[in-house]
Amino acid sequence: MKVVLMQPNADEIYQNRQSAYCSPIRPPETGLAVLATWLHAYSKMQPEVAVLNPYAEFEENVRRAADADWFGMTDLYTNHNNCLHIADAVKQKNPQVKIILGGPNAAMLGDLVLRNRPVIDYVVGSSRCWDGEDALTGLINETPEAKIPNLWYKKAGKAIFTYPAWTDLKSMPLWDFADFLDLDVRLAEHINNQAGDPWQVSPLALFNLRGCIKAIKEGPCTYCTSADCGGKGRLLLPDQFWQQVTHLNQLYGAKVFYVADDIFTVSLATMERLARAKPSKDDVKLRAYGFLPDLIKLENKKLKRMATALKKIGVFNLFYGSEHYAPAIVRLANKQPVSIQETVRIMNYLYIESGVKTTIAILLGLAGESEQTLITNLNAVKKLLSETGATFERLYISIATPLRGSRLFEQLVNSSEVTKDYYQQTGKNLQTDDYPDYRLLIKLMLKYFCAVDSQTIIKYMDLMIDEAAQYIPRHRIGGFMLDL
Question: Which among 343, 12, 363, 8 has a CA at the least distance from the CA of 221?
Fold first, then answer.
């Protein structure tokens, strides 16, 4: 039994994204490493597993995939077309190989993909759960389809979803990149540049939690596609987290990591448990996501304890999804507004107490955006830069993209004006299009739900970039900036 996995590179239209790293090359994919390791631990078939190098020649990857019994791809909205292109080529070479799509984009498209794309045999995940470990293992183990969790499959010409189930993280084995092809080449840049500027190359990714605690408590932000995760987040045990860090350090010399949790600083108790469990000789550095509303609410003694825990854990940068500083826009996006001054206070306090620097994210083009709210954000960026100094390490500016699965997308698809306009410009039905033209959807979002056009958005984005470039190296300024 041979299983081949891959995360294709971004489609051509999404390749101009600026990641706020010098190098655009990504490290080996943690999600695929987890799947491969899970198969080795829990599949009774004990399959041969290979994870392809997305930077290898197209024909070489197609040949390897076509030689497998099962071929799985991670489908993001930025690489969906490449996934389909590769699937077509693989099926032409070997119609017998079973092709599976998983990942956050595929999870929102299960029925559409199976109806629209005959070359795809299965889709893993749904809006409730993206977890793919048990679904992939069930398929490899030849479990009856209806008994496999999180699986879309075909029956009598229809797309059928089984049921949601969430991976038990306490059963997560230590994972690594043993099944990756060209591993030395793929790791080299990311391991050899750890000693200097941490934003030269993207680090290896880790996770401690699955599920967005904010989304579970308050519902997702309107622009987000976070799964509901069964109403609870799932944490690794503190010892599990550090054992995983040690495992990657011993195998590859990895010392700098990106913790990909939606929110890393979920609670003071969680951070203190992690800090207590950390091996005393471990000198790793972590960048992670923080949640400003919760940090702002901490009383001084608890904030100091949080700073102490973050320093012990080794956090060097927290990414704050501030997103917007116009309160009315933030509330429309189902978020808690935070003030500029409170942002400055938290940034400076954590830097002074624990050396934690900051990435600030700004999201433009949300419902209700006007030139005045753009000016509010420009002034916020200026104030944050001028009042935090070296604390402000990185700026991430993006244009709100109404991704399928988000409330913004639902808002557009429920608008007769939008769907009519979309059909006139693309010839496609937005309701059934599994590869939406997101550049067009952004423009339609601005046209029907905002008081600014794309050129005005770009004007203020450029002003923010120019302002930040006076304080921050240019390679630390990035975001999702589509060519509109």
Answer: 363
Sheet of 204-206, strands arranged across: 204-206, 256-259, 285-290, 315-323, 357-364, 392-399, 477-478
User: In sequence order, what are the beta bridge partners of 102?
Assistant: 74
Euclidean distance between the first and the last CA atom of the chain, given in angstroms as a whole number: 46
**What type of residue sits at position 268?**
L
Domains delineated in the chain: 2-169 (3.40.50.2300), 203-478 (3.80.30.20)
Radius of gyration of the chain (CA): 22
Give per-residue pLDDT as tens, 85-97: 999 999 999 999 9
Question: How high is the pLDDT of residue 233?
Answer: 66
Smallest CA-to-CA distance from 34 within 203, 248, 246 is with 248
- For every residue of 452-479, DSSP letters joined together read S-HHHHHHHHHHHHHHHTTTS-GGGEEB
The answer to whether residue 231 scores a pLDDT higher than 60 is: no
Query: Is pLDDT at 66 greater than 80 in this prediction?
Result: yes
Beta-strand pair 315-323/285-290: parallel
Give the integer Cα–Cα distance in Å for 304 and 306: 5
b/e burial code for range 366-391 (CB count within 10 A of at least 16 → b): bbbbeeebbebbbebbbebbebbeeb
With the C-alpha atoms ordered 420, 426, 430, 436, is the resulting torsion angle positive or negative? negative
Three-class SS state of 102: strand
Of the candidates 106, 108, 71, the residue with the CA atom closest to the CA atom of residue 86 = 71
Residue 128 is predicted with a pLDDT of: 82
Distances (CA, A) of 79 to 12, 158, 350, 447: 9, 25, 37, 26
Q: In this structure, what token pair is assigned to residue 298?
A: 């901490």
Q: Is the pTM of this model over 0.85?
A: yes
Q: Judge contact between 391 and 357, C-beta under 8 A.
A: yes
Angle (nearest 5°) at CA 88 between 480 and 7: 40
Reduced to 3 states (helix: H, G, I; strand: E, B; else coil), residue 124 is strand
In single-letter form, the type of residue at position 151 comes to L
Measured between alpha carbons, how far is 408 from 406 in angstroms, rounded to an integer? 5
**Cα separations (Å) of 350 from 16, 92, 298?**
33, 56, 12
Owner of token pair 């209806």: 146
Q: How many residues does the chain have?
A: 484
Are residues 335 and 323 in contact, defined by beta-carbon separation less than 8 angstroms?
yes
Q: Are 422 and 440 in contact (CB under 8 A)?
A: yes
